[in-house]
Amino acid sequence: MPYFTTLFVYFLMVLNPVMTNTITEDIDVLVFLPQNNSFLFSHARVAPAIRYAQQRLKADRGQYSGFSFNIHFENSDCDSDALFNLVDRSCGQKPDLILGPVCEYEAAAVVRVASHWKIPVISAGALATAFRDKNTEYSHLTRIAPSYVKMAETFSAMFEHLSWKSALLLYEDDKRERNCYFTLEGVFHLMADHNIKTYPISEEDPLNTDDVIQNIYDTEVVIMCMGADKIREIMLAAHRRQLTKGSYMFFNVELFNATSYGNGSWKRGDKYDNDARQAYASLNTVTLLRTVKPDFESFSREMSKSMKRSGLYCKDCENVNMFMEGFHDAMLLYAIALHEAMKNGYTKMNGTEITSRMWNRTFEGIAGQVSMDVNGDRNGDFSLMAMTDVVAGTYEVVANYFGVNGTFQLLPAFNIDHFTLRGRHKAHPEMPEKSCGLGVSALTGVIVGAVLGTVMLIAFYFFRKNYRITIERRTHGEECDSGKHRQLREDSIRSHFSAA
Ligand SMILES: *[C@@H]1O[C@H](CO)[C@@H](O)[C@H](O)[C@H]1NC(C)=O
Ligand SMILES: *[C@@H]1O[C@H](CO)[C@@H](O)[C@H](O)[C@H]1NC(C)=O
Ligand SMILES: *[C@@H]1O[C@H](CO)[C@@H](O)[C@H](O)[C@H]1NC(C)=O
Ligand SMILES: *[C@@H]1O[C@H](CO)[C@@H](O)[C@H](O)[C@H]1NC(C)=O
Ligand SMILES: *[C@@H]1O[C@H](CO)[C@@H](O)[C@H](O)[C@H]1NC(C)=O
Ligand SMILES: *[C@@H]1O[C@H](CO)[C@@H](O)[C@H](O)[C@H]1NC(C)=O
């Protein structure tokens, strides 16, 4: 009789995958998000995405429904709040998982302490180049949004295919969060074997467009990261000096704020609108590739409702940004890794094991496939936008770059002439214009070669001390204000950008 009971239980287990796969566990999650709504990753925006993931994991009746997430939100002020909070709270029970912070300097401190305690940290921020080094102090960090170096791959691939050689990196440096500084630092690092100049623009000082233009003259490609108004000022100045006739390429990088690029970004309703529209014909934008799938609709609707309920004023509430998407997917990724680890006999206490199971894997996120590289950083997909109708001044996505396989997808609107430097050398013949004979919808993939990227990364690693030309022009304010630099804890995330 006991034999039959055993057999019965055995069959029940074999036939009921839910029963055999569900593992129950309580998980303490500590989330750092700013209350201040001027951030795209504020609590009011991102918390609903985390709650949404939590509910879906629970409701799925699937293998993760046994996980019970106990989520605790704390403020992050992009300074030291998150660190102090983590330390205070951890005197008692340490959290099992930390989500955030997003801001670079704050994340650096939190991730260091968390890594020391072997607590997994997943952030849709911490995008600076230095976080890529996971050997020591950032060992338990998983980056669920594509970092700035991943973005830079888009540029290195373009430079390769179009035989561009030199670039000027123009960025606004606010000396606080330094988003633009870190954004272009990624390009600077990845493209160390090109001729790269940097030019910081201080936030407070008026823009010296003459000096900027002087620096543009001896380069081919200008890559900018700064506020929309300053970009317009520079484009207008370049237009007046006839630099927008095709012998220079202009790019701006705007990854997260969908409302600030593309159609109408040149328009201000002043007397310069017409010039600006013409100037912007040579300004291209690199941004994150956004994908949607059926699940996404309901997510997006739910997010919009939650944001309105919380009284958040936003023009673009329907636009789910990368931070919302990323922190949602962070919950899924952790659940997958924890489940796998527990099935293999580990517990939630082994943060090292869980972290390693989050890396080098692909899973289905809320907006599409999410691919994590072996270093625990998400592979990035980026879109290149260009003005395709100069009369109307409208923008279209002309190409997409897929980080996972290092390929470009050229869309029908792509025009090789637009990306050919005029009055210099011819564009590389390898960038084909044909569309595979399948009609307008057919897309031409150009293989960039992940191998090349890897070689460049390795090459960079060994030769980064030997940047070819780096002119660091400092504004007056900066020279007589070295105290401010110290206050930035410049070495705090081991940035080599301006130190080069
Ligand atoms: C929110 O952040 C912005 C930009 O960093 C800052 O100007 C503002 O003072 C902050 N608001 C509060 C209430 O802290
Ligand atoms: C996004 O861009 C728009 C237009 O440039 C700007 O008004 C808005 O403040 C930006 N939002 C954030 C959170 O940076
Ligand atoms: C955690 O897992 C690793 C294997 O990934 C193992 O070497 C280590 O001993 C485990 N640590 C604890 C505290 O169990
Ligand atoms: C990454 O995953 C692939 C297959 O999924 C595997 O072949 C490879 O060995 C893994 N790499 C590392 C470093 O774990
Ligand atoms: C810009 O406007 C044009 C025409 O209205 C439209 O076809 C295009 O999709 C828009 N581009 C973007 C990026 O929204
Ligand atoms: C590269 O990856 C993208 C996205 O996963 C896919 O659509 C494309 O077909 C791939 N290209 C090649 C050449 O494998």
Give the structure's gist in a few sentences.
It is found in: Membrane. This protein has 500 residues and is an alpha/beta fold. It has 16 helices and 16 strands.
Which structural traits does this protein have?
single chain; 500 residues; alpha/beta; Rossmann fold; 9-stranded mixed β-sheet; 16 helices; 16 strands; 37% helix; binds 2-acetamido-2-deoxy-beta-D-glucopyranose
Structure description:
This protein has 16 helices and 16 strands. It is an alpha/beta fold and 500 residues long. The strands form three sheets. The protein has a nine-stranded mixed beta sheet, sandwiched between helices. A five-stranded parallel beta sheet has the order 2-1-3-4-5, sandwiched between helices. A two-stranded antiparallel sheet has the order 11-12. The chain starts with a helix and ends in a 13-residue tail after the last helix. Residues 40, 228, 257, 259-260 line the site of one 2-acetamido-2-deoxy-beta-D-glucopyranose. It is found in: Membrane.
Largest sheet: 9 strands, mixed
Number of strands: 16
Question: Helix count?
Answer: 16
CATH class of the largest domain: Alpha Beta
Q: CATH-wise, what's the superfamily of the largest domain? A: Response regulator
Placed side by side, the strands forming the largest sheet appear as 7-6-8-9-10-13-14-15-16
Q: Which whole number gives the mean pLDDT?
A: 84
Tell me what the CATH architecture of the largest domain is. Answer: 3-Layer(aba) Sandwich
Overall outline = elongated
Give the total of domains.
2
The oligomerization state is: single chain
SSE class: alpha/beta
First-residue to last-residue Cα separation: 78 Å
Which kinds of small molecule does this entry bind, naming each only once? 2-acetamido-2-deoxy-beta-D-glucopyranose
Rg over C-alpha atoms, rounded to the nearest angstrom = 24 Å
- Give the fraction of residues assigned to helices: 25-40%
Low-pLDDT segments, ≥5 res: 9-19, 426-490
CATH fold name of the largest domain = Rossmann fold
How much of the sequence lies in strands comes to: 15-25%
